[in-house]
Specification:
Number of domains: 1
Number of strands: 8
Shape: globular
Strand content: 25-35%
Low-confidence stretches: 1-7
CATH architecture: 3-Layer(aba) Sandwich
Number of helices: 7
Radius of gyration: 15 Å
CATH class: Alpha Beta
Oligomer: single chain
Distance between the termini: 30 Å
CATH topology: Aminopeptidase
Length: about 190
């Protein structure tokens, strides 16, 4: 059984952080989504992004995100710098799952790596996810070679709970994956 949706998620955005804005994605973002998600360094670290990744893929992705946002089954957010709110630098989404959990994932364009944007944006997205009282934990993770994503998760309080093997549409075979979780109670204790 899937948890009840919380219609107020879309109404809770845009959200501004010190340097960023998390907002609804739009079709004006398609070109930048295709550019950044189409970079093999990004696509290869994400489960559901094929390579090559075209503007047609990006347009379908935006349509799916908008539908999910509207239904309340999750929230997909474009991330931009506050000084350039129309210029997408990355994406964050979370999707409701069964038994009190939601899965969160993100990617940023390579020009924006190493600046702390992921930590800042994901921290804000975590707070949004926990607006739904039915969400007791967020699940995440990263392929083992994605040390930067694992560091972000650790900084934000995620705990490693195991490993698994996952596929990536951008590269062949099963890939070792570190599984993490952040419980509402652990976040409140921080």
């Amino acid at each position: 059984m899937v948890m009840p949706a919380l219609p107020s998620w879309p109404g809770a955005v845009p959200v501004e952080t010190q340097r960023l804005v998390l907002r609804q994605p739009g079709f004006d973002d398609v070109r930048r989504i295709a550019l950044y998600a189409g970079d093999i360094r990004v696509a290869g670290m994400v489960v559901a992004v094929p390579h090559p990744y075209t503007e047609a893929h990006a347009s379908a992705f935006v349509g799916d995100m908008l539908a999910t946002n509207q239904s309340g089954g999750g929230l997909g957010l474009a991330v931009a710098r506050r000084k350039e709110p129309a210029a997408l630098v990355g994406m964050i989404s979370f999707t409701l799952r069964e038994a009190g959990s939601a899965t969160i994932g993100w990617w940023f364009g390579p020009p924006y790596w190493g600046r702390g944007f992921a930590t800042e944006a994901v921290g804000a997205a975590i707070r949004l996810a926990f607006l739904n009282p039915a969400v007791e934990r967020l699940t995440a993770g990263a392929f083992v070679e994605n040390a930067a994503s694992l560091r972000v998760q650790e900084k934000l309080g995620f705990t490693r709970v195991g490993t698994s093997e996952r596929t990536s549409l951008a590269r062949p075979g099963l890939i070792a994956h570190v599984d993490t979780v952040l419980a509402r109670a652990a976040l409140a204790a921080r």
